[in-house]
Amino acid sequence: MAIIVETGFRRHDTRRATGSVMSRFRHAAGICTVAGSFTFLFALVIGLIR
């Protein structure tokens, strides 16, 4: 019995592929937004301390 592991890169369904890319892009954008806001707050706090 063979176990087939299907990765997202080999699927030929265009709707799933674009949906996967969009979800990854939204996830990355959310991470960038959170990181940017933390960086901004950190820089603001350092500026207030100085």
Keywords:
72% helix, 50 residues, 1 helix, single chain, mainly alpha
> Beta-strand level of the residues, as a percent range?
under 5%
**Oligomeric nature of the chains:** single chain
Q: If you average the pLDDT, what whole number results?
A: 77
Helix content: over 70%
Number of strands: 0
Judged by helices, strands and strand pairing, the structural class is mainly alpha
Quick one: overall form? elongated
Cα Rg: 20 Å
What order do the helices and strands follow? H
Characterization of the model:
By secondary structure, this protein is an all-alpha fold. The chain contains one helix and no strands. The protein has one helix at about 15-50. The mean pLDDT is about 75.
Describe what is shown at a glance:
Helix content is 72%, strand content 0%. The protein is built from 1 helix and no strands.
